[in-house]
Structure formats: structure tokens, C-alpha cells
Amino acid sequence: MPAQLLIFCYTIFMNETTSKFAPINTVCLMILAASAATWVLVYTKTVLMPFVIALFISMLANASANWLSRHWKIPYNLGIILNFVLFMAVITTSIAFISSSIESFVAGADIYADRLNDSLDWILAKAATYHLHINAQFITDSVAKIPVFNMVKSVGGLIVSLVTNILLVTLFVIFIFMGKASAEKPSLVSKLQKQISFYLLVKIGVSILAAVCTWLVLISVKTELALMLAVLTFILNFIPNIGPSIATVAPLPVLFLQYGCDWRMLLVLVLLVAVHFVVGNILETRWLGKGMNLDPLVVVASLIFWALVWGVMGALLAVPLTAIIKMIFEQHETTQPVARFLGGGYSFK
């Protein structure tokens, strides 16, 4: 009897304790699940990242094929084939362009080194006129020790890694296209496809516009590597907040090496600031509306997280990936508070 009473009391105590600490247990379990998911993302980065990119490409292809079917009466399967051909053409052109751009940059490395030395001499001369004493020998030795060959080797390794990832993405895209893309999908999947494909289409459109405007600005002052800088602008424009800022100042070192510190640098800087302000803050905001319904602070935090997990590609995919997580969390009552937090439903009062 005493043993049964003890068990009865223990059961009541555990039930009360469990109900009392249920929120804490839920939070701890969510933290453990998030930690485990992060470890999986890092460990499977080599395969999972190309697969996610292939999924996004398939979403764009699906949206494009549906649009062609509705407006131009092109059969859905033919639209998928046309999108796959376009994808292969873009990939082939991109690889060829990136390889030729890096080759031309490496070929002109000596010229840029001479210009850098001339620019340093100009800076030292200007400093001397203002009675600023700078150790010229130290600066010259520091510039001479810049690991150019190691940088070239790292660029070569980057190209190999890029080609490998492109091949994996292409392989995944082929398998996804071979699947039953036209089959009926759950409402959540359809909602995800619609929202993510719309975001990607708008983002690609404004990135192309920003890249073209950047190329026109740079070519107007006969900037070297103008086309390469325009492509860099297109890529960086996918990184929220930080990317356009980097794209704005990226041409300045090239202009400094080419012309020195003159009116061209100031003109290009003013025009590029205007371009990114109009494209990013006016056109993109108008076309996207509320975008992914993510809080600006959450966007910055997700950018840091995905950059740490998947590097540069993670930063490029930070917004759509976080939006997918938010939409999935909205489907379950337990995780709905997290979804509201990601959407800005929090207060520090």
C-alpha cells in the first residue's frame, strides 16, 4: 500500500511538473532540433546545396511552363523542354564567360601591378606635400608580398568547384524534370512554388536591370572589366542589403588603377548609388510588395546564418530559404509563434 501511494504521488507530481515546464521542454527540443538540422546542413553541403538550387530552378521552369501554356497555348511538357534548353544555354554561356573573364584578368595582372605601383607613388607624393611622412619602403615591400600566385590558384580552384556544382545542379534538374512535374501537388507545395518562383523572377529581373545599368555607367567612362563588374553586380544583387552596397563600390578600385583619383570615380559612384537606390528601393519594393513577409532584422540574421552554413551561395539563397522555413512553421500550431517572429510579430516593450 505505501508503495502504491508513493507511485500515485510520484505520478501526480510528474504530471504537474510536466504541465508546468511544458513550454520550457518545447523550447529546448526546438533548440536541439535546430542544432541538429544545422549540423546536417553543414555536413551535407556538397550535395544538398546543388539540390536546393535545382529545386529553385525547377520552380522557375514550372512557373514559366504554366505561363506559356496559358498565354501561348504551348503544351506543358514542351514548355519544360524549352526551359531546360534555356537553362543549359545560360549555364554554358556563363561558364565560358567566367573562364574568359578570369583568363583576361590574369593575363593583365602585370599591367595592374604596374598601375598599382604608380598609384602608390602618387599617394606618397601627395602625402609629402601635406608633410605626412609614410614609410615608402614598407608599403612597397607589403605590396610586393601580396600572394598573387596563391590568389590565381585559389581562383582556379574556385572555377573547378563552380563547374562541379553546376554539373551537380544540372544532374538534379534533369531528374526533377523527368519526374511528374505536372502531377497534383499539396496546397503547401503549390503555395511555396508560387511565392518562391514569383520572388525569384522579380529578383532576376531587377538584378538584370541593375547589371545593365551598371554596365552602361561603366562603359560610358570606358572602364576596363566593365562587363565582368556588371555580372558581379547581377550576382551580388541577390544578397539583401549588403550585396548592392558591395556592387556600388566594387568598380572604384578598377577606376583608381585606370585613371587615378579624378572626376570619373566620383561620377561613377554617384550614378551607381542612384541606380541601386531606384532599382532596389523603388522598383523592387513596388514589384515585390511585402516580398516574403520577413522582418528586416530577420533577413539580416538569416543572411548571416546561411552565409556561415553554405558560404556565398547561402547568402544568395538566404531569403527564399528562410521564407520556406517560415511557411512550413505556419502549418503547425507548435511552431506558429516562431513563424510570427520571423514575420516581425515580436516586441521589445
Task: Briefly note the structural class of the backbone.
Answer: mainly alpha
- How many DSSP H or I helices? 15
Main beta-sheet strand count, sense and barrel state: none
Strand content: under 5%
Total count of strands: 0
Order of helices and strands: HHHHHHHHHHHHHHH
Write down the Rg: 26 Å
Low-confidence stretches: 5-10
Number of domains: 3
Span of the ends, CA to CA:
53 Å
Q: What share of residues is helical?
A: over 70%
Averaging pLDDT over every residue, what do you get? Answer: 79
Q: How would you sum up the global shape?
A: globular
Describe the structure.
The chain is an all-alpha fold and about 350 residues long. It has 3 domains: about 40-180, no CATH class; about 195-285, no CATH class; about 290-345, no CATH class. About 85% of the residues lie in helices and about 0% in strands. It contains 15 helices and no strands. Helix 2 packs across helix 3 (about 45-70) and helix 8 (about 185-220) runs antiparallel to helix 14 (about 320-330). The longest helix is centred in the middle third of the chain and has 34 residues, at about 185-220. It is globular, with a radius of gyration of 26 Å. The model is unreliable at about 5-10 (pLDDT under 50).
Summary tags:
single chain; 349 residues; mainly alpha; 3 domains; 15 helices; globular
Write the layout of secondary structure elements.
Layout: H1 2-20, H2 22-43, H3 45-71, H4 76-107, H5 109-129, H6 136-144, H7 148-178, H8 187-220, H9 226-236, H10 242-249, H11 251-259, H12 263-288, H13 296-316, H14 318-329, H15 336-342
Helix pairs in contact: 2-3, 3-4, 3-7, 3-8, 4-7, 5-6, 8-9, 8-12, 8-14, 9-10, 10-12, 11-12, 14-15
